[in-house]
Write a structure and sequence with these properties.
alpha/beta; 7-stranded parallel sheet; 6-stranded mixed sheet; 12 helices; 13 strands
Amino acid sequence: MKILFAIQGTGNGHISRAREILPLLQQHGEVDLLISGTQAEVSLSQPLKYKFHGFSFVFGTKGGVDNWATFKIMNLPQLWRDMHSLPLKQYDLIINDFEPVSAWACKLQKVPSVSLSHQCSFVSKKTPRPEKWNWAEFIFKYYSPTTYHIGFHFERYDDFIHTPVIRSEIRNMETSNDGHYTVYLPAYDDKILLKHLGKATDVEWKIFSKRQKTPHREGNVHILPVNNEEFNKSLASCAGLLTGGGFEGPAEALYMQKKVLVIPMKGQYEQQCNALAASRLGVPVVHEIDNHFDSHISNWINDDKKIVVNFPDETAKIVDDMVKRYAK
């Protein structure tokens, strides 16, 4: 059997999940990897068959998307050419994790494909989202359209939605509480975070920064370059995770029974939806770093409420069922 596994390269969550799913797919046949997009620090150890520019957004420094930088890296003619040039007839199964080039190539060539992603959980109207309709619903529907859907979210909101894929390296780690707090907020400049977190002098902070190449420390705040292994160690031994409105990071922290505080990116609808879903589990949400942020941080540090989640290890079964059901 020949399988194409197409992965979104913006952010770290898609690639982190792919590292868990890929070995399971390889048990069923030969797997070609396709990645499009930018902005990920995590990489795959296996070689890529296809690497496309794709269609990605760029993180800003004040809590949102950098629209100008996003516009500058956009290359719609190249996206069009890539969609029309990708050969697909050779594959028995095409799996898509929110990757637009292969999704639209499948649509153009009338080849079926399967979403295996967090984003496809929003196909269901039962998946939490703000009451006010947002134009970004079109992104869920048209950015990476596929024939079939297998989704992941914090809860099983519908019959095709499963609880998060927790990587084996996370499941197998011993956890502790060394008292520090781990931070991953790529949409905020380090100086903004230093200004506020440095005031909470009774705890240590470890900020994993997209912009920092070498570690350094200012008072009680450590600023570290993003590194998968070091981040995992920090997460396993921290008191809590301060992070954006992504999906995989909060899910792994909750699995480890860590406190989580979420700050969804401004103008990023998916993160607003994720934050709403997390809040229903009991996770506190702050929508911006403003004059009230320091008190939010203080309240969070002093709150010892535990959130209990049930994220069973079902990934192998999900992959096996998918191959049996959707492969040619």
